[in-house]
Amino acid sequence: MKIMSNELLVVTYRDALKSGNEKEWIKILKDEIKRRGLRPFKNR
């Protein structure tokens, strides 16, 4: 995976969830978000 800023990582994750395809990519992004301690949605 290419190095992404925190903001870009969250935006890419949200877009991947909206499209719904590429489950593997969604999992990779989610794992990276957890590793960095980010919260991709304000309500969660």
Number of strands: 0
Q: Could you give a short account of the major beta sheet?
A: none
Query: What structural class do you assign from the helix and strand content?
Result: mainly alpha
Unreliable residue runs: none
The string of secondary-structure elements, in order, is HH
Outline: globular
Share of β-strand residues: under 5%
Task: Walk me through this protein's architecture.
64% of the residues lie in helices and 0% in strands. Helix 1 runs antiparallel to helix 2. The chain contains two helices and no strands. The termini are far apart. The chain is globular and about 25 Å long. It is mainly alpha-helical.
Structure, briefly:
The chain has 44 residues and is mainly α.
Features:
44 residues, mainly alpha
Secondary structure layout:
Blueprint lengths: L5 H14 L3 H14 L8
